């Protein structure tokens, strides 16, 4: 799949020039919507849509999912050199004189028929363990936040590549002409810190056409900026203005032939349709009391993780293709026991409710849910551990993510780590492998979803990646 040749743009220009209706709204909407709705899969998809629950900061795998009970007897001992193997460390712990093994303070139990091991801080998620697939052997080369998040979201550690959501929008288009194919929601966790940035390029389109970039929804005021017309502007006035602007943009396109001008026209039309569709989407008054009880009281408060999960479900019902939900606050270099409880309190009930809600509505079977962060945490403490307190540094050598629905085997655990949750011991899954598998669930061959830029073909998985067949139904 490559970028469309210039003659396609010329053909569209010729069509518009010949059209007796000119660039009017009906003709324009018909033309552009047909492009937005076209799905170009390489084989039968298992999932039609995806929700990516991104825990920004790096959740601690050995405090949540990767139980290591044998470490209780090693508490405070030095992490063996044979385990650390002079691997690269961040600047926050590289100069430590000691790397004391610090077992988790939390209790673990096995849950469901699958026997998944889950920490006490996730009691609600534990109840849906048999619907989840845990990957305990994730690994990445990145050890700092920005390159690590960029790597997972764009397939490259340096900025300048399209985000996964943009790639999916480009490859599959939209099923709903009144809403964007790719929407971004952000919630700040109870333990979030000021130096916890998220950059808009993480949901950008880079060199792909700009209509494929993510549209962020806000938690207060209009969900999208400038959704409401200013005083004195009627719907008829707005329509006439857009028609006039469309004619001007079309004349400019006829002169320079830049396809981004057509994209701009399409985006203006999308924005106009969103003035009707988004308020209806964001209006929760038709949700039942049972739904709010399922997601928890936080679901009544816009901008919380629970409210965003409920909003994401409403988007899925309206065929939004890709919903990216960032939850900030998982960078626990200190005060991990208290801060991790706060973060899990934010997301635990809502995650379980989201899985249950999709399942009971028949949406889970063709919706892929992905949960995880950019890396894991070290088994050794950052600084000197206290009896009931410790922190952990970034760790890319192994971490845990879970997936559900959309062609993923439920109730399984894939991969394993060593006795210290420091290195992958079985079935490693790289960032590119995960992304290749996600695209596969959507019916996309990751090696064929490409776009030519700067003289070469680019793809989400760069020149790597293998589909993890063992976790697919």
Structural write-up:
By secondary structure, the protein is of the alpha/beta class. The protein has a single domain (46-239, 290-471), classed as Alkaline Phosphatase, subunit A. It has 13 helices and 17 strands. The strands form 5 sheets. Strands 1, 4, 5, 6, 7, 8, 11, 12 and 15 form a 9-stranded mixed sheet that branches. A two-stranded antiparallel sheet has the order 2-3. The longest helix has 25 residues, at 336-360. The two termini are 26 Å apart.
Keyphrases for this structure?
single chain, alpha/beta, Alkaline Phosphatase, subunit A, 9-stranded mixed β-sheet, 13 helices, disordered N terminus
Describe the secondary-structure layout.
Elements: H1 6-18, H2 25-36, E1 49-56, H3 61-64, H4 81-84, E2 108-111, E3 116-119, H5 123-126, E4 133-139, H6 145-154, H7 164-172, E5 182-188, E6 215-216, H8 235-256, H9 259-282, H10 289-295, H11 305-317, E7 322-328, H12 336-360, E8 367-372, E9 376-381, E10 392-395, E11 399-405, E12 412-414, E13 416-417, E14 424-426, E15 429-430, H13 431-441, E16 451-453, E17 456-458
Parallel strand pairs: 1-7, 1-8, 4-12, 4-15, 5-6, 5-7
Antiparallel strand pairs: 2-3, 4-11, 8-11, 9-10, 13-14, 16-17
Helix pairs in contact: 8-9, 11-12
Principal-axes geometry comes out as globular
Structural Rg: 24 Å
The name of the CATH architecture is 3-Layer(aba) Sandwich
Quaternary state of the chains: single chain
- What is the overall number of helices? 13
Distance from N terminus to C terminus (CA atoms, Å) equals 26 Å
Supply the number of structural domains: 1
- Elements, N to C (H/E): HHEHHEEHEHHEEHHHHEHEEEEEEEEHEE
Largest sheet properties? 9 strands, mixed
Beta-strand content estimate: 15-25%
Ranges where pLDDT stays below 50 over 5 or more residues in a row are 2-37
Helix content: 25-40%
Query: Could you name the CATH homologous superfamily?
Result: Alkaline Phosphatase, subunit A
The CATH C-level class name: Alpha Beta
Annotated CATH topology: Alkaline Phosphatase, subunit A
Helix/strand/pairing category: alpha/beta
Strands, total number: 17
Q: What's the average pLDDT? A: 90
């Amino acid at each position: 799949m490559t970028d469309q040749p210039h003659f396609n743009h010329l053909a569209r220009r010729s069509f518009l020039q010949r059209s007796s209706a000119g660039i009017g709204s009906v003709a324009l909407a018909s033309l552009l919507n047909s492009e937005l709705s076209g799905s170009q899969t390489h084989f039968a998809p298992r999932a039609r849509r995806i929700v990516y629950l991104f825990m920004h900061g790096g959740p601690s795998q050995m405090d949540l999912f990767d139980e290591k009970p044998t470490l209780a007897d090693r508490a405070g001992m030095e992490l063996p050199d044979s385990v650390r193997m002079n691997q690269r460390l961040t600047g926050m712990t590289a100069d430590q004189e000691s790397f004391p093994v610090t077992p988790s303070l939390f209790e673990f139990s096995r849950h469901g028929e699958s026997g998944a091991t889950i920490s006490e801080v996730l009691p609600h998620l534990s109840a849906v363990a048999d619907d989840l697939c845990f990957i305990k052997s994730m690994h990445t080369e990145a050890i700092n936040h920005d390159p690590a998040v960029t790597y997972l979201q764009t397939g490259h550690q340096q900025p300048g590549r399209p985000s996964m959501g943009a790639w999916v929008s480009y490859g599959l288009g939209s099923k709903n002409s009144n809403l964007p194919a790719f929407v971004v929601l952000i919630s700040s966790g109870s333990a979030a810190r000021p130096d916890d940035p998220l950059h808009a390029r993480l949901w950008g389109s880079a060199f792909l056409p700009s209509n494929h970039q993510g549209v962020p929804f806000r938690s207060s005021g209009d969900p999208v900026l400038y959704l409401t017309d200013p005083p004195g502007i009627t719907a008829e006035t707005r329509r006439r203005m857009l028609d006039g602007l469309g004619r001007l943009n079309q004349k400019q396109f006829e002169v320079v032939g830049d396809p981004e001008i057509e994209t701009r026209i399409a985006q203006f039309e999308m924005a106009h349709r969103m003035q009707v569709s988004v308020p209806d989407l964001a209006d929760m008054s038709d949700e039942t009391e049972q739904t709010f009880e399922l997601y928890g009281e936080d679901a009544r408060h816009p901008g919380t993780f629970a409210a965003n999960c409920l909003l994401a479900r409403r988007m899925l019902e309206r065929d939004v293709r890709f919903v990216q939900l960032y939850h900030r606050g998982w960078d626990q270099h200190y005060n991990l026991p208290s801060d991790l409880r706060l973060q899990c309190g934010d997301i635990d009930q809502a995650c379980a409710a989201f899985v249950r809600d999709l399942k009971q509505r028949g949406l889970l079977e063709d919706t892929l849910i992905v949960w995880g962060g950019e890396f894991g945490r070290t088994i050794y403490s950052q600084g000197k551990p206290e009896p009931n307190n410790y922190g952990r540094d970034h760790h890319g050598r192994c971490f845990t993510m879970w997936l559900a629905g959309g062609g993923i085997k439920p109730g399984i655990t894939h991969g394993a780590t060593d006795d210290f949750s420091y290195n992958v011991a079985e079935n490693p899954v790289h960032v590119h492998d995960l992304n290749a598998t996600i695209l596969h669930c959507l019916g996309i061959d990751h090696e064929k979803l490409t776009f030519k830029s700067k003289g070469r073909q680019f793809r989400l998985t760069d020149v790597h990646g293998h589909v993890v067949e063992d976790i697919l139904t």
